[in-house]
Amino acid sequence: MIKVIDIHNYLPHQKPMLMVDVILGIDEENVETAFALREDNIFIENGALCEAGLIENAAQTCSAIVARSYLIDDEDQDRLNVDVIGFISSIKTIKIHALPKTGCDITTRAHLESRFDTGTYTTCMMSCSSYCNGELLLEGEINLFIQER
């Protein structure tokens, strides 16, 4: 696994929709990210991250694995001027155990369960889990669609 990578190398998201700060480790099948939850986050409701924000954090973490194949070449060099679009195509399962309060550092892990590449787009199923100080916040399986524009 590679350590501490700028998320902008893997996601086109910008604030206020960027829900991951850094990639702590990534390889072809696994990724781990970190996200510091601040009071000005658009998904904060009553001092805690709402369900949609927690799911968006998980989805952005998951998409980093597949986006990596579009944005990084075989020698781990950035491919410049690559424009990709991606979205959640379906949520197979999601269980939310707790909503983190502002000030929490969220760690999210994802594992590639299956992947289908057509040459024009990629679909994949990812399992993921999110934590704050060791407490399980979310676990589930998300299907993603990613395509180079």
TrEMBL record:
InterPro entries given for it?
ApeP-like_dehydratase (IPR016776), HotDog_dom_sf (IPR029069)
Q: Name one Pfam family in it.
A: ApeP-like
Q: What is this protein called?
A: ABC transporter permease
Organism of this sequence: Flavobacterium subsaxonicum WB 4.1-42 = DSM 21790
